[in-house]
């Protein structure tokens, strides 16, 4: 009887989260970081009244889950998905990886916009900037690389500002559908929305 109680105590709380992560209509990948955090800090944390069997089972499950998602590539993927989910943003990203994740988001957005520009054969609306007055021909030749660097920097700074605005936006409820949230707010954060589409939407669900 003690064995059954120990097993039930460990496995019962996992049912709800298993259902949430296996639902086809939900964004599961961005939910993994919060769930792993909850497992480690609460659901599968050792309790004072736990039997040795319960403790052993919790340790075994946690070890398996943490190792399963410990691969650097997988961890980066989960961090980015979490960053782009308006419910979580940087909450479940390790402090030492927050700046790295932001920088990677900026670079990926730049890449997506460049690809869009190449596909359309012109300048993406998200990359358009006011054109400075024409400079003398000699100055153009001498400073062409500098001008290009300034343009690139301007694009990058614009992306950084938009990403910062998104991260500082009002927090949303935990039961908010992130896909619906992005449909409503893509006009506010058009560049970040492109990256959200990459990480949060399947190909047949892309409304942005």
From TrEMBL:
<dbReference type="GO" id="GO:0046983">
    <property type="term" value="F:protein dimerization activity"/>
</dbReference>
<dbReference type="InterPro" id="IPR012337">
    <property type="entry name" value="RNaseH-like_sf"/>
</dbReference>
<dbReference type="InterPro" id="IPR052717">
    <property type="entry name" value="Vacuolar_transposase_reg"/>
</dbReference>
<dbReference type="GO" id="GO:0005634">
    <property type="term" value="C:nucleus"/>
</dbReference>
<feature type="compositionally biased region" description="Polar residues">
    <location>
        <begin position="114"/>
        <end position="127"/>
    </location>
</feature>
<feature type="domain" description="HAT C-terminal dimerisation">
    <location>
        <begin position="162"/>
        <end position="200"/>
    </location>
</feature>
<dbReference type="GO" id="GO:0006357">
    <property type="term" value="P:regulation of transcription by RNA polymerase II"/>
</dbReference>
<dbReference type="Pfam" id="PF05699">
    <property type="entry name" value="Dimer_Tnp_hAT"/>
</dbReference>
<dbReference type="InterPro" id="IPR008906">
    <property type="entry name" value="HATC_C_dom"/>
</dbReference>
<protein>
    <recommendedName>
        <fullName>HAT C-terminal dimerisation domain-containing protein</fullName>
    </recommendedName>
</protein>
<feature type="region of interest" description="Disordered">
    <location>
        <begin position="114"/>
        <end position="154"/>
    </location>
</feature>
<feature type="compositionally biased region" description="Polar residues">
    <location>
        <begin position="143"/>
        <end position="152"/>
    </location>
</feature>
